[in-house]
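This section describes the prediction task in plain terms. A model, or a person checking by hand, is given the sequence of a single protein chain and must write out its three-dimensional structure as a string of tokens. No templates, partner chains or ligands are provided. The sample shown here is typical of the held-out split.
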Amino acid sequence: MGRIHSFQVEDDDHERRLALGAVRAAEQVLFGAGCDHVLLTLPAFRFDDLPMLSRAGYKEFAHDLGKRVGPGNRADPEPGEGYAAVRTSQAGRESWERGFLRGYAVLLRELGLPGGYAESSARRALTSLAGPGGTAGSYQLQDFFHQGERIGHLCLGGSADGRTGFVHDVEVEKKHRGRGHGRVLLRAAEEHAASAGNTGMALTVFKENTRANDLYRAAGFSPTSVHLMRQLLRVP
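The expected answer:
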């Protein structure tokens, strides 16, 4: 697996063609190094280039979303009574980590990525959440209850500079969905970020997860970048 970290595209069609040529050249370098897939991240200010990359064989698979937090930035009213959050037990934390590894790897395999890469990526992602030296710092996992019954969980973290709170995972149990609990959990995440002095929140969601995408956008999140992938095929 290779990654193109960035490329510059101007508004002029000629410059776009040159930029696409640079992407193709990078693909050849990665292909020569043994990579069979390329990942590319496109920031929001370059979203106009998505059609060009789509024609070049790149497919969107995940979006980074963000929003500002603090006074004047709340998308939801105060939740009703009966909600409570409890720090997840060690046994629950270990169970969540096993589920995270399994689910993350399955999603990547469904995207067509090799099994070995999918599993190693899942382990790296968990390490970045769990370790204080990770890019996202250590995470906090909380179980949420409504009127005494567990309804789901929330996994939160923050950037090293203290400016951004991360929503690593938000999940409402199936039997409790469709009742507004997801919005309550996201509001709790927003309150947590604001109380920690963060000015923004961020999360990553797979494109195919339409339910989660609808929830996040209704809560005021908007796209900040798009992750794309292209498979490099060997010519017989």
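For orientation: Residues 90-110 form the longest helix (21 residues).
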